[in-house]
Amino acid sequence: MATPADKTKEAKAGFTFRKFKDGDQEWPSFQSRIFTADETDKCPTYVHKTPPCQASCPSGEDIRGWLNIVRGIEKPAKDKTMQEYAFRRLTEANPFPSMMGRVCPAPCQTGCNRNVVEDYVGINAVEQYIGDTALANKYSFKAAEQASGKKVAIIGGGPAGLAAAYQLRRKGHAVTLFDDHDELGGMAKYGVPGYRLPRESLDGEINRIIDMGVEVKLKTRVGVNVAIQDLEKNFDAILFAIGCKSGRALPVPGADAPNCITGVAFLEAFNQGRLKAVSGRVVVIGGGDTSIDVVSVARRLGYIKEMAETERPEYIVMGQTAHDVAVTAKKDGADVMLISRQPVEKMNAAKHEIEDARREGVVIHGSLQPVKVILDDKGRAKALRVVELDFTGDKAVEKPGTERDLEADLIVSAIGQMGDFRGMEDFNNGKGLINADKFYQVPGKPGYFVCGDIIRPHLLTTVIGQGSIAADSIDHYLKKQDMGKRPKVDVHHFNLLAKLNEVGLTPQAFEPQGPENEIPTYRGRWGTSEQGKSVGGFAIHNYEDRADAEVCQSSELFLGHFAYTPRHIRTEMVPDADEVLGHFKERMLGLDEKQTVDEAKRCMSCGMCFECDNCVIYCPQIAVKRTPKAESTMGRYVYTDYDLCIGCHICADVCPTGYIKMGMGDH
């Protein structure tokens, strides 16, 4: 069996980079040909693009930004620590860094350009550190100083509703949250087990939002305890963020047996502390993250051999009774099986979660289609009949003669979710969801908005991003502004002008002088140096912001700059099959400060200068220069003296981040 050292050795052996390969004597494109050596009059321009991590983040976090803060490239003001500055940048988009650092499946890491070097940057690990540090240091949020006088009702206190409340309070609007549970948190509280998401971390991040002045009405169901018509009278806008807390039952005969339940109901009963044991043989149908949580919880809970009829798990889940003696009774490990219609390698659940479940003793089978629930003489499920599926053709087909029965004492369906519309039936689109347009407005219902799983069940990070955009739309609606057009790359971007304002380098206002319709052309750099003074200290650096339209690809980077650097991996306390019973300790242990900073340093800062000095060092004409310290800040580290530049494009070739492009016009 290969050891980690063996794997590292193998990875290093294949770790090579060449800008050009043998036989690459021809330029690959016409565009490349016209930007060659001194045959071109094209000079460097500094182009800011969105990195793929941010483009892959449904919450739209400025990931590159807070990684550069943690690593020390972007400096905070003197009154802020690195930890707080990174926290403030991160939470512009997402107020839940501690939660997301633990449970987000991290599409940002899948998109990370560092994957073409050796391994992705551990973005989740750095995010967890930022979130946990913020809680430990009691960083708080502030609402806007000026109140708008407008009131918004949010129905649902899960991550989507809370994210929207956070953004609306920052815009100065009053917010009232209605939730029919005892506590806020939605699926994060009632769906995700505490060993994956510690409740003190989750509650800390929720309370930080409520402390902004959000009014909360718990145990209050809109449509039952308070009429929607009353909300229309008392609020200027209404946002649905009710989530999908009703699970879908198996669509097969016999699935209405009492011991056939849904994964959503199972997890809610567990997270409320009511469910403390399962049955001896549990079969779960799914393939997504919810099904993984169900099987992992079932393995931890175990079962009681001599269980009273009234203590069967299905009665607990349905709220008909409670587990009183189960706490002290001796429990054994349950036999837990997860089956998926998809092949295991194509299951929607995160791959490491699948591996963890197997380590914990869960048996997983793919390519199985439920056909029928087999009942005993009392009408209870005793087995699930399945048939194997063949995926070799255009669509899955059943394999004749492969039917078999899987014995089961409890069958859990985790095949999908839908909304609970009691009292709000008029908003059901017929599929258990609510329709939304691209601005998260409810079509045909002015003043009504919607976000989160009730549009389409997805990731926690997705619903948080939707909450942010819905808040923007509500803000426009309340101000009677046109919704406008959202950018192609719709995430939070680095803003150079905002950075200049922050560090006291605000450029002077510019008004063209000279004959009518004549716009003078200036070259040089930002600032107040001699060259800058010649044009009055205007912001004239050849900086171009394409972040809202373009994503920086790995092909634009100089990968040879980056040395082989293994990822700093968090310690995961995943029990094996013999240890899992009763194991409810947190699984994900965070990195310390040094490990976090070192991991952030692996970020390649795609699409933004990270001050490596390559362009300064390799320029043969000494045309690329460092901006004087008094004028320098993030995104404004170097400039080009175009009187010296010959257009040789070496600076662009050796720029690791793809920030330099040969595109400045004729001169």
Describe this entry's structure for a reader:
With 667 residues, the protein is α/β, with parallel strands linked by helices. Among the domains are: 27-49 and 495-546 and 608-667, Alpha-Beta Plaits (2-Layer Sandwich); 151-245 and 419-478, FAD/NAD(P)-binding domain, CATH 3.50.50; 247-417, FAD/NAD(P)-binding domain (3-Layer(bba) Sandwich), CATH 3.50.50. Helices cover 27% and strands 14% of the residues. It contains 22 helices and 23 strands. It has a 5-stranded parallel sheet with strand order 4-3-2-5-17, with helices on both faces. A hairpin with a 6-residue loop joins strand 12 and strand 13 (397-398). Helix 4 (63-71) packs across helix 20 (593-600), helix 5 crosses helix 8 and helix 8 packs across helix 20. The longest helix is centred in the C-terminal third of the chain and has 19 residues, at 460-478. It is globular. The protein starts with a helix and ends with a strand. Residues 519-536 have low confidence and may be disordered.
CATH topology heading of one domain: FAD/NAD(P)-binding domain
| CATH superfamily label of one domain | FAD/NAD(P)-binding domain
Assembly of the depicted chains: single chain
Helix content: 25-40%
Distance between the termini: 62 Å
Strand fraction band? 5-15%
Biggest beta-sheet profile? 5 strands, parallel
What CATH first level of one domain would be assigned?
Alpha Beta
SS-based structural class?
A: alpha/beta
Number of helices: 22
Spatial shape: globular
Mean pLDDT: 89
How big is the Rg? 28 Å
List low-pLDDT spans: 519-536
Spatial strand sequence of the major β-sheet: 4-3-2-5-17
Number of strands: 23
CATH architect. name of one domain: 3-Layer(bba) Sandwich
